[in-house]
Amino acid sequence: MRWSFTEHPASVGESYVGHLRSAFGFGVAMIRGGTACLVHGVLPFLHTTTGSRTVIRLHDRMITNRHSVSVTAAEPNGSPDPKT
């Protein structure tokens, strides 16, 4: 049972607690961005870029994190520089 809680976080280079924090951070940002989009739908002069900026920021965070994990996993010593 414990394996169920650690398999995915380990696959993305995070501990369970680190993954929990990251997921909660993403979730809160998505709720805020979604709420801004709903408000924008009713009042189009408000939050004109909040939703798109939220999506861009979250995409950048996820892709940057994924890239650093895949580089570390690909190198036997954890360093992208073969000299170290």
From TrEMBL:
**InterPro entries per the record?**
DUF6356
Q: State one Pfam family annotation.
A: DUF6356
Q: What is this protein called?
A: Capsule biosynthesis protein
Q: Which organism is it from?
A: Bradyrhizobium ottawaense
